[in-house]
Structure prediction request, 512 residues.
Amino acid sequence: MELICPAGTPSSLRTAVDAGADAVYCGFRNETNARNFPGLNFSPEELAEGVTYAHRRGAKVLVAINTFPRAGAIGLWHQAVDDAVKAGAAALILCDIGLMAYTAEHYPGTRLHVSVQAAAANVDAIRFYVERFNAKRVVLPRVLSVPEIAAITRGTACEVEVFVFGGLCAMAEGRCSLSSYATGLSPNMNGVCSPASHVAYEEQHGTITSRLGGFTINKFGSGEPAAYPTLCKGRFRTDLSTGYIFEDPVSLDAATLLPGLRDAGVTALKIEGRQRSRAYIENVVRSFREALSALDEGRPIPAGMLRPLSEGQSNTLGAYRKTWR
Amino acid sequence: MTPSHTSTAAFPAFVSAALRPLPLGPLQLFLSAVLRRIVRHHPRIFDRLGAHAGKRYGLAPSDLPFAFVLHTAPHAPRIVVVRSLPERLDARIAGPLRALIGMADGSFDGDALFFSRTIAVEGNIEAVLALRNAVDDAGVDVLREGAAVLGPLGQFGEALMRHQRNRSTADRPGSTASGSGEASSWN
Prediction:
């Protein structure tokens, strides 16, 4: 299985390659990708330099252009496709069918990967992308169990990529409106979930209050691990109780499921975290490179080693093991 | 092995007490020289800061009796040593000095330091992220830049600090004492 690793900056790209990534995914410095955070991402020139660096070391660079173009502004997204192809990207990660059509028509030799933002979660949807746009790979949304993934790989010849570590979207990606509701900005259209421009932290007597767009998302008591101010992982008071309604503030860690994912026919394993530092990328990539070596050699796979880097300082298997059913 | 982000060692209280009566002037001169070197060696920081270049950041080492105001004006960046941070700042970042330096040189992850409550951030979070990402991309080795300013004495001090840092990191479970130092980070 290939190891697909995140990079938010040129330094992170080099770090990921050096740590053992088979491929690195990244995006441009604008709203064409779903990690449009301040200080992150690549200029076309930086991308070309990154591609050269990766190629010299046997790694590939995939470019995420995985937001839905705004009406009347399609030129920005077309330019991103043109720049990525020109820079030598090994594949484009897309979610919008119009952009897939543009890419398939203008660059038929370019590999097209279906982004998780497309939320293609069944064989019929994947078949559509393959037949219509010659998609080579689909990144599955984080709502499927391992047996459900196995059923999909049996039903399609398209390569399947799944997330194995990092921030966990608890919703059907590309269709979540929680961030838009609170801030007017969303990962789907603007490339930002819970944008920093709308985030506020306030500390009083050891308690941190996190707010998003004026909504109180959580309060962390003294010494309690903190988390991102996302609505889906907020702690709310209702008539029934106070607690996490959708999901706890945890990160995905599916290292222990690698044998099952391999047996399910998964082609590639994706690490989330383009917004994270070089320290995160180096540690997570090295850890999963070691896990894959252990898998190949029949050794036990180390578990829980990445908890210090995880949101809320804890991990989950997410939907891969749907204990709530 | 992944470094612990839960227990970034702070200086002992007696260090803070010993430093408290000292005048700030010499430290001000030293840090200004360090900043000039950093800006000269990492000019792309301001490109990554983008619209946030020019913001004023308060950096508060929680284990030292003083703090710093960093003004990121592209043509005239400066750092000012203060006894306590002023009210009018764009953002504040507080935590042990080791954590703040480790974020700059890439040995700590900022989000993880935030999750573990090792650091705290307040103010304009966009500006905080822009600075964090710009500095992380640049890979600012604060210890090396500081040592270079001090000359031969600084090189000895740098070696000593790296030795201490690696030893304390190796003592912690799940640590990676490699490269330029320990590991951990915040956001």
About this structure: Chain B touches chain A through 47 residues (CB under 8 Å).
